[in-house]
Fold each of these.
Amino acid sequence: MAAPPILVTCGEPAGIGPELAPKLTGTGIPFIWLGDPRHLPDGTDWIEVQDLSTPPEGVLAVLRHEFAAPARPGQPDPANAAGVIAVIERAVRLALDGAASGICTMPIHKKALKDGAGFAFPGHTEFLAHLAGDVKVAMMLASTTVAPPCRVVPATIHIPLSQVPEALTADALEDAIRITREALIRDFGIDAPRLAVAGLNPHAGEGGAMGGEETGWIAPLIARLREDGLNIAGPLPADTMFHAPARAQWDAAICAYHDQALIPIKTLDFAGGVNVTLGLPFIRTSPDHGTAFDIAGQGRADPASAIAALRMAAEMAATRR
């Protein structure tokens, strides 16, 4: 029996998500788009389906989810905020039921959801974790076009830099490390993952001269995890971790904060980066870009990251099966 298709959520209707959907049909990966067909670009070749059985090839299969209003490119409508949230909730239910092999989410606009529907979550990742039963998750950004691959996991995300030293606790870092290791085994097929941990401070603290976190608790934590059998290096200076020979020594890097992780991967593989939520009971990937309101509706959106996200979701689902 064929595996269920990937479910692609529509994302913010005023962004580039709807115009990326038709560009995914040539990948050869079975998927179904969940959204309002009124939001698709004019002339899109689509067919409505009633369930998530194997979709037809060469045409966009649509599982209809009606929204309150049409889409105006670049201008999010508060009336559609509840629809965006409902699509995500519906996708998660289908994935948890096994009707979908995984979810590939198109970008949402958090402010539009907050203004229009009181969205109370910091982002997509946290909302998915809540829908999955408030499970512990980690955000991975994974490259698809560079070798050796670059996979990064920030232990703290989307907070001011001034708050990082307080938020980066031993528990938070250990959670990120263990979630990453388990996902590399389960979803990426890496039997014995090699992990690297970046220091918080420049030069990984330089023996205490530039900060005490590394010697005070990060190094002892890593030593304890090694005793538990993890193949893990660090704390390492972040400025020398991401050139090719360094990347060849690890399968994923756990970083202290958002920019420490995302700057290298977006420099190395801006168009091919994929956002993966680790720790969920279902597969979830997303293109590594936002709603791009400035170019929405102009047909200029580059589908490379969305295609990479769809392909990675299918590959991860096959590995997990």
Amino acid sequence: MTTPAQLPATMRVFERGWLSANNVLFIDDQTGEAALVDSGYVTHAGQTEALVESALDGRPLHRLINTHLHSDHCGGNAQLQARWHPRTWIPAADAAAVSAWDEDALSYKATGQQCQRFTFDAVLHDGDRLRLGGIDWEVVAAPGHDAHAVMLFAPGPRILISGDALWENGFGVIFPELDGESGFDEQAAVLDRIDTLDARIVIPGHGRVFDDVAAAVTRARGRLAHLRGDALRNATHAVKVLVKFRMLEVQSVSRDALFAWMCDTPLMQRIHARFMPAQALDGMFDQTLRGLAGVGALTLDGDLVVNRD
């Protein structure tokens, strides 16, 4: 847990890894209300609960808010709901899918990831206002990485909770483009909107809290231009990210089992058919493993694939 000196005392950031998104805990000393933004991946749900419980020091968790519903941001929702029964806010556009628990629409089946079913009490729209930790926050739509994502911005202290719309060095995979939908234009518009917010501090979905916001936006624009130059780049990157996420989850697995997972993952099949039809799926798999091994993200040990952090 970190509370950087530049953040208000009512805010605490749990900087997680790449399997679980960062969590932001608010405790309003005047009202006693506690709220959490994002809850990590389901296999870390026990750890998330323990972190929150320790920081709450006997208080209940009153509210739970999700910037978007990718599995690494909401996978702990069900466990936190079972423990504290917080009122839960999700992006409005995801309400029907959560109500029906449509794992196709929610991306969990498509990406070969897990998420325990959870419920919600209210929805977030662009322009909505919330009060968290004694601070006024605005909901800011952030399509691009995820078509339904939102950010939270506090105009007073100029703090942005950006989810996966902006990291210190880039942003999340532009998933809509993988299925032939628009995402690059939306990501560009989100970066423009972040510019207009004039944030002083950014709490990203992954990585450390940072304050050189202008430089991060510049790097993100450069990254976006690179991806837009050839859609295959975004697709190849997405395959690597999904495989790396799987490795973070299982830590070690046989090549055959990992390839079977890839074959069973609908988004992998769609990426292969749309972007790499001339290449056999096992060729895409081998190329991905070599690429990840080449940058030290995993180790190939005979028939065993081993994660490296």
Amino acid sequence: MSVANEPGTEVAVQAVEAAVDGLARVKDAVAMVVYGQERVVEESLVTLLAGGHGLLVGVPGLAKTRLVETLGVVLGLSQKRVQFTPDLMPSDVLGSEVLDEAADGRRAFRFIRGPVFAQLLMADEINRASPRTQAALLQAMQERKVTVAGEDHDLPRPFHVLATQNPVEQEGTYPLPEAQLDRFLLQIDVDYPSEAAERRMVLVTTGGTEATAPAIADPRLLDQWQRLVRRLPIGDQVVDAILKLVRAARPGSGALPDLDRLLAWGAGPRASQALALAVRAKALLDGRIAPSLDDVRALAGPVMRHRIAPSFAARAEGIDADELIRRLLAHAL
């Protein structure tokens, strides 16, 4: 399927070219501050272009928080940060009602907005808060609104959550509920930087001045890019590959001889939706007008690794979610 065969092609192509140029400048600006994490930056931008939320997973000290702050500055988004701790309460995130008394003695409740009322919410170390507080974000992430004392309060547009998470094996962490994990468009695994990137980081960050990223975009422009992503064509071959992959990642699918023994539960339809959006966003970020099967291969892990669960037998054999996805990719593509 090609945009060249559709009405209004010239406008569409011009819009794509303008977006590609703007996104290239965004990536360059982020690279001024975040070193050696090109894949992580790309997957984070894919998440935002697709209009979703991202979960960055890695050990402390890998610039996850710095990346989120930088993305907020470069994209011109109003941002708030919440440091998740075991004693954090839902009202500390959503807001609460207080009783005000006027000069004439009349009393009325007034809603004080919490930090969730931002265009970019950084949920730092989200898995160090209690499950109750983690769950407070569910409605906000799905419906773009919060309900407090029976009243609905709309969140700003755009609204994105970029959460950081430490590995669940570390002390003081709580596993995220499966329902909340499914709200994240991508799980972005953050690895240690290369030696060259770490050398540059050490020299730059311990000198007299540190680089700062300029603002390149604004919420209006980001909204235009997000709308453009949804307008990009996606070929039947890519759609078929997405459906075959996601549907294979379910117990009883028969995609692999021992899948039912290795898979506790699989990916739901939200994974298909997320992958269809993510591959479009990656195509635009790479300067292409339509996604390819290579985009499906590149994003299958980030989209699905938090939506499937290896069984106890699989974990005992050293088979994790990424290994299962690799095997399913070999079957589906």
